[in-house]
């Protein structure tokens, strides 16, 4: 069994007890999981590896289980055993073999200035491959593209004002190049591990149940206007914040260490952020940005420019 | 098989490894091999994001959030350096609790970073992983020497270490808000006044982590080192090193846990910030960015520059390439070795050593020496958490002082990221960032040649690296990874 029912329910409900399982996550479908283990390639453009590091924090299921049972991760620069041409060749060989069936994961944005030369990923037969070229090639023949992190989904910090590399999102690169592969965005700087693993598990389940095309159709139905799965990104942080009452009473914290009041005046961007951080919390449920300081709105397409200055009321 | 070989010339062969995997970022190594040994090396950083340019014109306080996103493995290091630069620019003095909670946050991330590095980035250099992607394929001749039983134990540790490093992140998050990328460190201190309950949660998690470091990680490093003893004699490089010092132990900033200093050509000296400069002759930046102190630093890309081969600038101290990181810190601080270290050195290596420098320059400055230094350092940081910071922290006492961003001003923040010396410099005009310069640790180590033609520290460390089989150049990547780039 690749994933226990208990793991799955935990994943979907977050760490705070009392929140029901979303209807889209009927645990009865989980049994099917053991059959379909998709090939996955994960490449990194202009990012910080934070999405990968966050993925390692997955608890239910553990990351070891994800790597050993749930997917076959054929390429990941930070953890794979191989390197150089051997790694690059393995990716292109398996991609050829698995054409139309593999899942392509992108972390980081794509610089398009200078023909993509601000980000070189690898080399084969004395030819260098840029993130731009590789994104197009690998996305074309994928069953599903998953953009992890705000950089891949919307451009993020590398695409912020003042950038000289013309960094942009994977989503835009695909659209500009007429690539029709379905795209799921899992933004966040970085995304919560549950959002990444949860989305993969849902996609794998849906494909299991309904075949490739039908399954992908089910996944796409889950997405909001920004391409994010609504089970994780469908609720507004501010509307669900434990400090909402204080906001309504105009009771605002004046210093970070005042934990009794709403953080709006300290710059909290909860009102313009849609994610379930308020109930899921981070790092095994020990804390989250608003309880600690302020929300930066890191899951939104306008991050960081529209959220900055971070410490001024919006 | 690495097929990227140029035709043999004068018995010389060029090999490229791109990507070098299991590091943070994009790195390519190219070496020339002659008679089974590396005779020249070029390291190329393949990505440029341009944080310096993005920061210009922003609210200076945003820098601590934005610069964390330079590195998902050690965001707390950038947060720390950036906050130190901003504290300096705003002229604030932290409360004792502010200083200590910063240490608790940063210290926990040190532990996660060192554990992640050894187990999840470096260990596959010595351990055969499960026979499934992403652990295979591997080079045809990976030189894996552990017997089956030891190897199986090591694989279990790899899995266990995934959990332990996750627990370290929970420790960071208790006061830092979340990991990766914390919300809890700002100019003037930290945002969470520690409660007794939160401190108890931190301490109970810490206990498990300390146990793993002392009883598993540290002895395993010595054990693996004893099976690969020859790796204590390669990868030495210049044997020059530098540390800014890290973890303030008093409010005046006079004492630090790991002291600062410079060691060049066998001589110790005091660290002098004025002697830092960056050079760009071989980097894809305009020549006008060369030979500058970071306070005058410029970062203007020039991607078509003739002869350049990296997005990394060549950082130099007094015009010399210096290694930074755990080995540099252990060499400069020269602490007493752990009991387990002393015992294993005696039992497995036949070496009598009390302090770190007793290992000798040749053994310490090596591929394996770096792994030993990192593991010894992990225990020192863990013990400081336990013996000092958890005792000094006062539940309920303030961790934050208010400050104002000045209309004009500048600030500089020196710290040591887990992987090495880190500097942030900010210049403020009209209360906005006018110039921001970053000198991360990885760049000190993995830089290209400078204007004087000297190789970067990792390039130099590759010279002499044995390559008996050009199809499986294992030691090249092992040397590179020992620096935790
Ligand atoms: S703390 Fe932030 S999210 Fe919560 S109520 Fe206030 S503004 Fe809204
Ligand atoms: S609380 Fe806000 S800043 Fe924090 S992770 Fe959630 S969306 Fe991002």
Task: Give structural notes.
The complex is a heterodimer of chains A (314) and B (485). Chain A is an alpha/beta fold and 314 residues long. Helices cover 34% and strands 12% of the residues of chain A. Chain A is built from twelve helices and nine strands. Chain A has helices spanning 5-13, 50-55, 63-70, 84-97, 131-140, 149-154, 170-176, 193-221, 230-233, 244-248, 277-280, 289-292; strands at 39-44, 72-75, 103-107, 110-111, 120-124, 127-130, 144-148, 167-168, 183-186. In chain A, strand 5 (120-124) and strand 6 form a beta hairpin. Chain B has 485 residues and is of the alpha+beta class. In chain B, strand 4 (185-186) and strand 5 (189-190) form a beta hairpin. In chain B, helix 4 runs parallel beside helix 6 (196-227) and helix 6 runs antiparallel to helix 10. The relative contact order of chain B is 0.20. The interface between A and B is large, with 85 and 86 residues. The structure holds iron/sulfur cluster (2 copies). One iron/sulfur cluster binds at residues 188, 237, 273, 275, 277, 288-290, 295-299 of chain A.
